[in-house]
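User: What would this chain look like folded?
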Amino acid sequence: MTFTIILLMDKIFKLIELIINRGGNVTNILMLLLYISPSFLAFTIPVAVLLGILLTLGRLSGDSEVIAFKASGISLYQLYVPVAIFSISAYLITSFLVFYGLPWGNRGFISTLSLLAKSKPDVEVKERVFNDSFKGLVVYVDKVPVQGKKMEGILIYDERDKENVNTIFAQEGFLISSPQSQEVVLELLNGSIHRLAPQTNTYQKIKFVTDDLRIELGMSVADIERKFKEHEMSIDELKKKIEKMKAQGEDTTNQEVELHKRRAVPFACIVFALIGVPLGIQPRRSGRSYGFVFSILVLLAYYISLIAFEMFAVRRVVPAFWAGWSPTFIFGGLGIYLLVKAANESPFKPAVWLIEGLDLFQKKWRKLSNNV
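Assistant: Here's the prediction, encoded as structure tokens.
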């Protein structure tokens, strides 16, 4: 929950701004957060599994419970059984979120945004700012009175029709919204339209007393889906996009990397369990601080390798398959190696050195604190 909230903080402010501009209430914010949570949980559950295992076994090791288990004839492999069941359960939950929770969240997110758009088909136009909230339009307004929808000193750059780009000036204007048609009518007064016809290379200037500019604001499902990034798509949507791009002769390396990475990420629960058990039972006086340190180091190493192999795939150094699965194979092999060493009571030297370094740092810090 803590990891998920940290990742959601950036989205919360954007959603609150969306609710304020589009209308809505706290329920809408909570529903939108619920719909986007599967995309975050797919990454935070493996992280939580690693930290939970390190803290639990670190506490057991710090209280000499691991020694008591071994003295009772319980091997490390027997201790690993409940951890394995826990990690496999987390893997199944994460896989369910990746394959089914993410598409459900996308559909719900789209439907909620569509309802918000229909409930308040309006846009806040800020004065002395180039507003690009209108599709195909850039609107600049010199003055917007505090009350009402009246605007003064209007400049509009209209490129909805690429062949006939218009620049519109108007002294005054009014925004008139229509919930039924999902449109906003921008009624302009006392202005002119400037146009350069590329076919004839002629300049046209049209003066008007009143002119209505219709702007469609309703967000359709297709429009929102097109804005989805690869990491926000479901696996089926990614496959369809890859097939479509291949049919058009486009490069699909990024999409294929994301597809393999999506399939490999749930296995991080099992991989982190393999690594967490031998690191967690390292002999120490107190297990909590070491658990945080080990988890941060393992997570940094895992996700840095994931990013590195992704860069290699984009540069065609390795195939897309290895970009997603290499960290899983590397850290899975490392976890098995550490587990065998720990079962044979052969200490892992880098972990021992790290613990000794942390012990020395804590002693120095306590001594410094006592002197102060």
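The radius of gyration is 29 Å. If you want, I can go into more detail on any region.
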